[in-house]
Amino acid sequence: MVSYVIWDLGETITTPPPGGMDLKPLNEYPDIKLRKNVDEVLKTINKFDLKNAILSNTARSDSNAVKKLLKRLGVLELFEYVYATQSELDPNIPEKPDAIVYNMVLDDLGIKASDGIMVGNTWDTDIIGANQVGMHSIWLQNPSVSVRKDRETKVNNPPWVIPIWDVDSVPKAIELINSCV
Hints:
CATH architecture: 3-Layer(aba) Sandwich
Helix content: 25-40%
Shape: globular
Structural class: alpha/beta
Number of domains: 1
């Protein structure tokens, strides 16, 4: 049974830094905000007796910088676990969609892939990566934030991939996934 909802950060729960990449630690960008209704959705998920976690590809931000950002945004206490890859500027560091990153997070959380749901806006990293390790996923397809370049990789079903329009739909998508497992 699903026990964790694992969130991407930029363009999924927060607005991005200027230019889209964190060229300095994310907590040093005062203009980064939570996307609309994210705090309410995170609280709803906690009411479902599920835990929230973060898995985000970042350039300069480590997990502590992301925690500082989440604290400033008033939602750090809603997350049990935060991991930032610091990989976007170094091709030698694993990042989503690499299975090693997903498996490390699953191991740290002490769960099987089928016990997690990945929520993200990028098909190529968030959704395909989760799918390939056996995690369910919720794809935030809002055209203003959704990214898809990989049209070749085949998707396994199950695990389930649920497309949604905005973050408000995450609780219903979780209920749908839970009804199928």
